[in-house]
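**User:** I keep going back and forth on a fold encoding question. It is easy to fool oneself when nobody else works the same problem. Could you pick a protein and write out its sequence and tokenised fold? Could you put it straight underneath, so I can go through it closely?

**Assistant:**
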Amino acid sequence: MISDNVVAVQVNHLLDPQQTADHSEKFGFPDLQPVLSLPLGSNEVTPMSMAAAYAVFANQGRYNKPTYIVRVEDANGVILEEHQPEPQQIISPENAYIINNMLQGVMDPGGTGAHLRNIIGSIPAAGKTGTTDEFKDAWFVGYTPRICCAVWVGYDRGKNVDSVGGVVAGPIWANFMASTARKYGAVDFVHPDQIKLINICLDSGQVASQSCERTSSMAFLPNTEPASICYYHASGLDWLLPDEHDEHHQEPWWERWTPW
């Protein structure tokens, strides 16, 4: 939602870069190098492959290999040849929905693409901004339940675009997606029965109470959701939230006290 690169690298480190590269191959990326910076765009990929990969989440976990020709008809409309999709279930529908839930937050207040919501309106949509080092490449890849689109803005001779993905690529994507919504209509992502949507406090990471001001609805598989109600808001313990500028603060604030 906020493009926190440190978290992406930490997750890649915990999983092991080789595991990340192997898993990415299922999404149509066969030649990724298993380096620590893999989540940050250290391998070159094409807009076509990015669109096909993100379409997996919109398609309930199914991957379809991209094709340029859907069908061939003669002058009388008789179909001479037609492409037959061969979808592969590479992740579960529940996994896909959780990713959808996360990436919809990109266009919520505080997300890196929040300004795009004014363009696409209220249609269900998810996406991700992307900017490479020295502003050489600007990306926005996103989708609705019916269509996925990848936008890359850059130069083929190494010149910088001098802006971020959400600013230069995002509006191109958003205007296109708004036009497709008018043509195809707006439908929501399929919600698997097992998935729970729970309101979470963004300060504590616990289930939000009525006193929590910064909250977000998040998707969870059963028994993976936080087990506790937000204790410092519910108990009036806001003073336990650490000062962000406290140079002596090392461990998370919730590890520094025991609720009674």
About this structure: The chain has a mean pLDDT of 88. Residues 240 and 257 are 9 Å apart (CA to CA). Residues 196-255 form one domain.
